[in-house]
Amino acid sequence: xLRVSREDRFHSLYVLCLGLRRGELLGLRxxxxxLDSGTLEVVQTLQRVGGELRFVRPKTENSERTIPLPxxxxxxxxxxxxxxxxxxxxxxxxxxxxxLVFPSRRGTPMEPxxxxxxxxxxxxxxxxxxIRLHDMRHTCVSLLLDLGVPPHIVRxxxxxSDIEVTMTICxxxxxxxxxxxLRRLGDSLQ
Length: 190
Hints:
Elements lengths: L10 H6 L5 H6 L5 E2 L4 E4 L2 E5 L2 E5 L8 E4 L2 H20 L23 H12 L9 H12 L4 H8 L4 H8 L4 H15 L1
Antiparallel strand pairs: 1-2, 2-5, 3-4
Helix pairs in contact: 5-6, 6-7
InterPro entries: DNA_brk_join_enz, Integrase-like_cat_sf, Integrase_catalytic, Tyrosine_recombinase_XerCD
Protein name: Site-specific integrase
Pfam family, one: Phage_integrase
């Protein structure tokens, strides 16, 4: 998916959706991102409230968090900033700056369904079947757990209020993982 989306306008959004909710991504401002230190602050989300797009506090207290960014995220955001500067220059007189990392083509808050429109083509080209954009958060949790990251750290990265949510909703064991676990159990019983 990351290779396929490299030239897509939403590539950096797809990179970051491995840990952030859609509303968190669309509410993210450049002032919340420090590319030099490689961190990102989740302090607001973009939600539809009463038919209007509004910036609101994150879903839960634990959703407000600081996320250290791996190099792949810093690189994607750096390139994204460069591309948005060009996009902004092309429509300068009509640009309505809100300081958003992922604005509309005019600088205003983006309609939440817009990333989904290009996601279908990216998903198909990457052979991901019917996976939803939000499912990438689940993928992030599963990958972190597979890498041996303790569940409480994964919960903090993802911003879940309860570790049970992290473990039951997002941690999907593959057939190979189950096979390895039961093989280890079988070996220990012999």
